[in-house]
Design the sequence.
């Protein structure tokens, strides 16, 4: 899985004209790669390689998302109800953790609200739930409930962490093994990944 951040800006050397979706992370507004070229390169790779590469796009603003729709459309299956039927929908929670906040967990109320939101919006595509590692490690029972309730979406967990987040590797390892390595994507600092000592889970 390839993960990419998208902002509106300009390709270096092509600063004239309106901003376009580019591969960059705020506050940067210039890049050596446009989203259109990135998608084309991935598509060319997938056309000649049996082991396909998936793409996770992280839009850093609603305008970047809206201006990317026409670029993404050619890589989605035509004639289906959803705009991007092959896209994996990434859902998560706003969290306050790290720094002076070193303890926390996902509550049953939060998990229940997520399940209701998925049902209310008639989601019918693959879903990955983005969970913060330090909170997820304390939340195995409710996250297992979430996975069971949304199993029809071929759901997975994207476990992420900011640099310096306190993480209990033993608890997080237990969660990952219980959910199953095939249902986990890791987006954590290398030091955390090394502490987990897992046999090659998928990475985002």
Sequence:
């Amino acid at each position: 899985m390839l993960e990419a951040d998208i902002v509106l800006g300009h390709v270096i050397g092509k600063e004239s004209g309106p901003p376009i979706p580019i591969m960059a992370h705020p506050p940067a507004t210039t890049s050596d790669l446009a989203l259109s070229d990135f998608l084309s390169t991935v598509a060319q790779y997938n056309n000649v390689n049996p082991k396909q590469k998936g793409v996770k796009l992280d839009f850093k603003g609603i305008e970047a998302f809206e201006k990317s729709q026409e670029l993404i459309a050619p890589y989605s299956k035509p004639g289906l109800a959803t705009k991007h039927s092959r896209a994996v929908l990434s859902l998560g929670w706003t969290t306050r953790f790290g720094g002076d906040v070193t303890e926390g967990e996902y509550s049953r109320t939060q998990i229940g609200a997520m399940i209701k939101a998925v049902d209310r919006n008639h989601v019918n595509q693959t879903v990955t739930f983005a969970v913060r590692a330090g909170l997820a490690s304390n939340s195995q029972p409710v996250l297992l409930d979430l996975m069971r309730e949304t199993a029809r979406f071929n759901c997975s967990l994207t476990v992420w962490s900011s640099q310096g987040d306190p993480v209990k590797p033993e608890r997080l390892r237990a969660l990952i093994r219980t959910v199953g390595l095939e249902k986990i994507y890791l987006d954590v600092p290398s030091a955390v990944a090394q502490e987990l000592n897992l046999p090659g889970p998928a990475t985002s």
In short: Confidence is low (pLDDT under 50) at residues 78-82. The first strand starts at residue 2 and ends at 11.
